[in-house]
Specification:
With 132 residues, this protein is an all-alpha fold. Helices cover 55% and strands 0% of the residues. The mean pLDDT is 90.
Amino acid sequence: LPNATAWRAAAQHADRYQRASRSASPHKFGTVAYNKWFAKLFMQQKYGWGADQFAALEQLWQRESHWNQHASNPTSGAHGIPQALPGSKMASFGSDWATNPETQIKWGLSYIDSVYGSPSAALASSYSRGWY
């Protein structure tokens, strides 16, 4: 079994995510302001990315979806804030992937981290290729 230090660290880690709850937000759930607030808080807590990376993410997802969790590209089938293609791949982060901005943001940030390493690298790719 892990020692007490490991248990405390895990509890503190879980507590940080709890603070990113809807009730802590100064914005109404699902609005652009809320979506940006949640993304900024989550990316700082989960990935340690700062204001410079949030600025890149803000531009990237503005280009992709205008931060709208209901955005859908009728040509490609891309869906949501991160414009996942297909949108259903976000189901790995929750069954509410089609409508929940938090699920979409969590999936999108994980995708960016695993494929590009940072929002600024994803934005650079988007500018050079027209997509990320």
